[in-house]
Amino acid sequence: MANQRRDKSTNENCHWQTAIGASLLNPSLKETDLRGAYLRGAYLRKAELRKLNLREVCLSFADLIEANLSETCLTLANLSEACLNLSNLRKAVLNQANLFKANLVGADLTQADLRRANLCKANLVGASLEEANLRGANLCGTDLSSSDLRGVNLQNAIYNLATRCPEGFDLAKAGAYLIGPNMLLPQINLSGIDLSGTDLRGTDLRRANLRETNLSNVNLVAANLSGVNLSGANLTGADLREVIWKKAVYNLQTRFSEDFNPIKLGAYLIVPNVSLAGINLSDVDLSGADLRDADLSLANLTGVEMRSVDLCRANLRKTRLETAKLQDADLKAVDLTKANLKQANLSNADLREANLTKANLQGANLTGADLRGADLTGACLNQANLSNVDLRNVDLTRADLQGANLSGTDFCQVDCTGVILDRGSPIAIPHPDKEFAGHHLSKQ
């Protein structure tokens, strides 16, 4: 059976090579879907491949000199050590493509999408990268001599001391990061970047965002990874001797070498239903984490980055969340009883049915948040921003709204019994139907 599968795979690969070779003469292959084709070492010099779907195709060591790949989809394609000299890649999509040691001398990459592409040690001498998007690309050891970099996007791209640029061009000023051994890179955002094989010995990466980053075979000896977010990262084959792991976080999608256990070294596994009561994860990046039904009661999450986190039904009783960034977070039915959310950012968060009894929300930003059905009995909302908040069926009994921004907020169907406003006077609201107009509040 295994031999049959190999024979079938070989036949399919031959079919793809024959089909693409025929495309030089057969215009009917325009916009053909060739996803996942295996074309390692294929001879495609001057081939007409415009607008083809070559997503995840293997073209390593292929001869693509003067090939027309304009507007072609090469997302996640393997073009390592391929020869693309003088090729036409205008507006090509090379998102997360592997171009390690690829030759692109004189290639036209105008307006090409090279986000998070691996261009490590690639030769781009004289290439046109005008208005190309290289956000998050790996340019370590890349030769960009005499290339056209007008209007190029290099935000969060990385380079090292071996990277060569046109005279007078400053990669750092263009938004790229210089990386290498023993460097100070705290809080750097390297999410999703291919760093495979790089040397980061002794590098300070405290609180860095390394979500879904490829760190395979990276030298991280004595690196500081405290507070780092490694969710979905690949660390297989990495040298992790003497690494500092304090408060580093990872999830089930994070890949380590066999038998490596980061928990024993101070890291934390972030998964639904996890029990982390009383834990100190202050200033850690937990953005996008799945913490449904987790127990984080009494935890210290001060200053934590938690954008788009899923905390549905989580236990956050008496948890410290001062200055936490919870924009767009899913907080449905969460228990935040007596939690400290002073100056936290909860803009556009989903807080439906949340329990915020006696929570401290002083100075918190709740702009655009959905609080339908939430319990804010006795909560402190002093100086909080509640503009355009949905408060239908919310219980604000004895809540402190002194100095709060209530513009655009509808108080219909809200229990405002004993609410405290700017003059410090409680207001008694008869509420047989629990309806109260917001403009009445401002007059108290």
Automatic annotation (TrEMBL):
InterPro entries found in the cross-reference section: 5peptide_repeat, Pentapeptide-BTB/POZ_domain
Pfam family, one: Pentapeptide
SUPFAM superfamilies on file: Pentapeptide repeat-like
Gene3D superfamilies: E3 ubiquitin-protein ligase SopA (2.160.20.80)
Protein name: Pentapeptide repeat-containing protein
